[in-house]
Write a structure and sequence with these properties.
Layout: E1 2-7, E2 12-15, E3 18-20, H1 27-38, E4 42-47, E5 59-62, H2 66-76, E6 82-85, E7 92-94, E8 113-115, H3 119-123, E9 131-138, H4 143-152, E10 157-162, E11 174-175, E12 177-181, E13 186-188, E14 192-193, H5 194-215
Parallel strand pairs: 1-4, 1-6, 4-5, 6-9, 9-10
Antiparallel strand pairs: 2-3, 7-8, 10-12, 11-14, 12-13
Helix pairs in contact: 1-5
The structure holds cytidine-5'-triphosphate (CTP).
Length: 230
């Protein structure tokens, strides 16, 4: 399989030195890329600004903003069988980005924002037979919101996690997630390393791809070179 994995936060600049972002460190997405490469798959890793080494055997594409990440996903999706959106994409960006550093005296007291594109919703028309996997990072029981996002974003699988815990979610090496599939099945995984969570997600994808290849008339995904759909 060829996996397209997004990881990390995005940054939405208001001038060359200031930005809006979030607490994502990219560890879960990089673990997914590592687990996929370890299993022998081709991996394109679209990474927001993170301080992590590129997993061996993967192709890394660095991006900064949500719009950069969307462009990279549109470039690479045609070549992919599976899209895993583990990135914490910033939902909003400053309406204006200054070309030079704003002086304190000229900083507005309120920041005007505009919405970023929803990457999963934007590329939904290109899904075809590809698997789309999303993440739902919530504070508190993530399952209800995860189910809503699974349906709203047309996903095959959503990985739900409660990021208010100290041993799961942002910036730690462990995670406790529930895998919720579009067919109504779900699997609660115990606390485990992010690499083991990633391996479990990989197994789900591998089983689903081989199941659909074996039981249905899985159509050609129309894979082609990067950029074909932009
Ligand atoms: N996502 C996306 N594009 C965005 C925001 C999120 O593709 N602009 C993806 C994320 O990568 C994740 C899934 O959508 O796989 C859910 O992201 P999340 O931030 O939990 O949900 P939102 O749709 O942003 O909703 P909210 O912030 O209100 O919880």
């Amino acid at each position: 399989m060829h996996l397209l994995v997004t990881a990390g936060p995005t940054r939405e600049h208001l001038d060359p030195v200031r930005f809006l972002s979030n607490r994502s460190t990219g560890k879960m997405g990089f673990a997914l890329a590592a687990a996929a490469a370890e299993a022998g798959h081709a991996v394109t890793l679209v990474a927001g600004p993170v301080a992590l080494d590129t997993p061996p055997g993967t192709t890394r594409v660095d991006v900064v903003s949500a719009r950069d990440m969307l462009a990279a996903v549109q470039d690479w999706l045609p070549a992919a069988d599976v899209l895993i959106m583990s990135a914490a994409v910033a939902d909003w960006r400053p309406r204006r980005c200054a070309g030079i550093k704003l002086k304190k005296a000229s900083m507005p007291a309120t920041l005007e924002l505009e919405p970023n594109p929803d990457i999963l919703k934007t590329v939904a028309p290109l899904k075809g037979e590809r698997l789309f996997v999303g993440f739902a990072a919530e504070t508190g029981d993530p399952a209800p919101e995860a189910r809503r996002k699974l349906a709203a974003k047309g996903l095959d699988l959503i990985v739900a996690n409660d990021v208010s815990q100290t041993d799961a979610g942002f910036a730690v090496d462990t995670n406790r997630v529930v895998l919720i599939a579009a067919d109504g099945t779900s699997q609660a995984l115990p606390l485990m390393s992010k690499l083991d969570v990633a391996r479990a997600i990989m197994r789900w994808c591998e089983e689903r791809i081989s199941y659909s290849a074996g039981t249905s008339t899985r159509q050609e995904t129309g894979r082609s070179s990067p950029g074909a759909f932009r």
